[in-house]
Amino acid sequence: MAAKPLESPASFVDQGVVPGDVVLDLSSMANQTVKLGGGLRQDCDAISVMKSGKLRFSKPNKYWVESSQKRYVPCVEDTVLGIVVDTKADNFLVDIKGPALAFLPVLAFEGGTRRNIPKFEVGTLLYVRVVKANTGMNPELSCTDANGKAAEFGPLRDGYMFESSTSLSRMLLSSPTCPVLEALGKKLSFEIAVGLNGRVWVNAASPSTVILVSNAIMNSESLSGVQQKIMVEKLLQRVQ
User: Fold this and answer.
1) Where are the domains of the chain?
2) Where does the record place the K Homology domain (predicted)?
3) Percentage helix, strand, coil, to 5, in the chain?
4) How far is CA 136 from CA 65, 83, 87, 133, in A?
5) Burial class (CB in 10 A: 0-12, 13-18, 19+), 72
6) Over the stretch 48-89, which tens digit does the pLDDT of each residue have?
7) What is the architecture of the domain spanning 160-238?
8) Mapping DSSP to helix (H, G, I), strand (E, B) and coil, where does residue 85 land?
9) What SS3 class is residue 13?
C-alpha cells in the first residue's frame, strides 16, 4: 500500500493536532530555515507533534503547538516574565513557571561588566528572553535582545502581575492586536508586558484602571473577538 503523501504545512496551521501527527517534511522545504516551538520534535526530516493542541505559525518560519495549559515549557527566543528567587555570585535564579528554575547570568545585560552588576532582591519581577532551553538543563535567560540591546527587557516596577494559561498569553501577543487589548487601548492609558509563560503585568496611573484591564484580560480567553469588545464596553460603562 502506497504511503499517503504529506499535506502542505499550511493545511495544518490553525488546525487541531495530536501526538504522532507529522506536520512538516523538511526534505520538501529546501533552503528554508524552520524554527520549532513548543510541542514539536524533529526526527530526521519529519517534524511531529508531541502534545495535543492547535498548530500555529508566525512569519518568517516558526511553528509551534498551542494548547491551554498552566505549565510552561521553555523555548529559545520566548519572552517571559520571571521572578527572582535567589541570587548567586555569577547569576540570578529565576522562576519562569517551567519544570526547573532558570538562571540569568549577571553579565546578561546591555553593557554588563563585573563593575556594574545589577542588584535584584528576591521577588523582583523581570521581563527576560530565553536564550538556551536544552532538555535536562536549566534554561538560560538574558535581559537583552538578539543585538545585545536592553530594548524592553529588565525589571518591571510597580503594577500588578497575574497568571494565565499559555494560550491566553499567545493570544495577547498575536498580530494584529487582539480585540480585548485593542478595545481597552482606545479608552484607557496603561502599560502591559506579556510573557509566553502565562504571566501578564499591567501598570497604570490609577489602580482602578489596573483592575479593569486585568479583569478584562482574564475574562477574554474563552470569548470571540466580538464578545471581547462587548465585554470591555460593559466594564467601561460600570466605572463611568
Assistant:
1) 15-66, 78-155, 160-238
2) 159-207
3) 20, 30, 50
4) 21, 21, 22, 9
5) buried
6) 998 888 888 877 788 888 776 667 889 899 999 999 999 998
7) 2-Layer Sandwich (3.30)
8) strand
9) strand
pTM: 0.76
Q: Which of 215, 209, 173 has its CA nearest to residue 193?
A: 173
**What 3-state DSSP class applies to 82?**
strand
Q: pLDDT-based confidence at 202, cuts 50/70/90?
A: very high
Angle (CA) 102-124-101 rounded to 5° is 15
Burial class (CB in 10 A: 0-12, 13-18, 19+), 48: middle
Distance CA 226, CA 99 (A): 36
Per-residue model confidence (pLDDT) at position 1: 38
Cell of 40: 514539536
Domain covering 15-66: architecture: Beta Barrel (2.40)
Note the pLDDT tens digit of each residue in 4-20.
445 555 677 878 888 88
Residue carrying the nine cell digits 511553528: 63
185 CB-near residues (< 8 Å, 6+ apart): 177
Q: Is the pLDDT of residue 176 over 50?
A: yes
User: What is the CA angle 98-104-107, rounded to 5?
Assistant: 165
> What is the spatial distance between Cα 108 and Cα 93, in angstroms, rounded to a whole number?
13
Q: Is the peptide bond before 19 cis (omega within 30 degrees of 0)?
A: no
